[in-house]
Automatic annotation (TrEMBL):
One Pfam family from the record: 4HBT
InterPro entries: ACOT13, HotDog_dom_sf, Thioestr_dom
Alphabetic keyword roster: Hydrolase
Gene3D superfamilies given in the database record: Hotdog Thioesterase
This protein's name: PaaI family thioesterase
Sequence similarity: Belongs to the thioesterase PaaI family.
Amino acid sequence: MTDDLLEESAFRLPEGYESMNWVRGFGRQVGPLYERINDDGSYTRAFLVQDHHTNGMGNCHGGMLMAFADVAFGHAVSMAEHRYWVTVRLLTDFLSSAKVGEWVEGTGEVIGREDDFYTVQGRIWCGERTIMTGTGVFKTLGERPAKPEAK
């Protein structure tokens, strides 16, 4: 137990990132996940590859990368429309892998819209290495509540 606490405290969150602090649901299972919102309105989501993210070869599991792509790409809809969304389709290409201890980042950009359906193009990377590219189709639902003001 103590070793786990010491390992966690050794990690320094890159500048501008904040923990997403999901209090329920799937994000708690695959996290921790982090987010940075830039002054220009763009965003990057990220995670540190840990043992629970890996497959039998010690690489970040493809299922983890798919789950991360979903929340990284789909967030482009929230940024554009401030609405909840669900995934209709997610198509990805795995180009590289990530190992334990590597910082993985991802983002998406809305490239099309028809009615309540948004097409997003996204990219997942680690440093200069692209790990995954893809596109997703997301359907918007209800309005997202405003975030509480920081104290």
